[in-house]
Specification:
Catalyzes the reversible epimerization of D-ribulose 5-phosphate to D-xylulose 5-phosphate. It catalyses: D-ribulose 5-phosphate = D-xylulose 5-phosphate. Its cofactor is Zn(2+); Mn(2+); Fe(2+); Co(2+). The active site is at 36 (proton acceptor), 176 (proton donor). Pathway: Carbohydrate degradation. The N and C termini lie close together (11 Å). The protein has one domain (5-215): TIM Barrel (Alpha-Beta Barrel), CATH 3.20.20.70. 35% of the residues lie in helices and 20% in strands. It is of the alpha/beta class. Helix 2 runs parallel beside helix 3.
């Protein structure tokens, strides 16, 4: 059975105490720090931009897993790489020339991921799956934290896992939205590799313990 990795989403962190929140993640068993970038155009919310990513990177001792929920992401790849991104994930729905986008991310020395909104079929990735490092399957509609998990995600993960196996891809499957211990366990069984958790981690009395429990689902 695959080992679960955890990428806590700082979208749910206390922004007034961001340094202490990053220090907590550094001291935890988290594998990555998930950074959601929203522009108010591709998704109906605005999160934060490059200066905040740079500030997180100054204090972080975990790799930054940057998720671009924005239109025209290609024009910002270099800036996010300089800001500290180790992985840059773009949305399939925002990239008309997806293969070119993936190449551009790799040329910067970053890992490249593709995210899928809930309505998008995993079959759309079949022709590019061997070129990418991870797929983020959105298990809620992107834009806001704390949403209810979409049950169809389990079937979607199983279908994606079959494509990855059939093509010999090394891409990891990352799930973003509505993750808790119950959904995390089922997602692992379906073939997920990485769990993104925001409010479930940062809203807990003991976030480090929750991260440990997510790793053990």
């Amino acid at each position: 059975m695959n080992e679960i990795l955890v990428s806590p989403s700082v979208l749910a962190a206390d922004f007034a105490n961001l340094q202490s929140e990053i220090t907590m993640l550094n001291e935890s068993s988290a594998d990555f720090i998930h950074v959601d970038i929203m522009d108010g155009v591709f998704v109906p919310n605005i999160s934060f931009g490059l200066p905040v990513v740079e500030a997180i990177h100054r204090h972080a001792r975990k790799p930054l897993d940057v998720h671009l929920m924005i239109v025209n992401p290609d024009q910002y790849f270099q800036q996010f790489q300089k800001a500290g991104a180790e992985t840059i994930t773009v949305h399939l729905e925002a990239c008309p020339h997806l293969h070119r986008s993936i190449q551009a991310i790799h040329e910067l020395g970053c890992k490249a991921g593709v995210a899928l909104n809930p309505h998008s079929s995993v079959q759309l990735l079949r022709n590019i799956i061997r070129d990418i490092d991870q797929v983020i399957v959105m298990s809620v509609n992107p834009g806001f934290g704390g949403q209810k998990f979409i049950e169809h995600t389990y079937e979607k993960v199983r279908e994606l896992k079959a494509i990855i196996t059939a093509t010999g891809s090394r891409a990891k499957i990352e799930i973003d939205g509505g993750v808790n211990l119950e959904t995390g366990h089922k997602l692992k069984e379906a073939g997920a590799d990485i769990l993104v958790a925001g409010s479930f981690v940062f809203g807990a009395d003991d976030p480090k313990d929750i991260i440990n429990k997510l790793r053990e689902v």
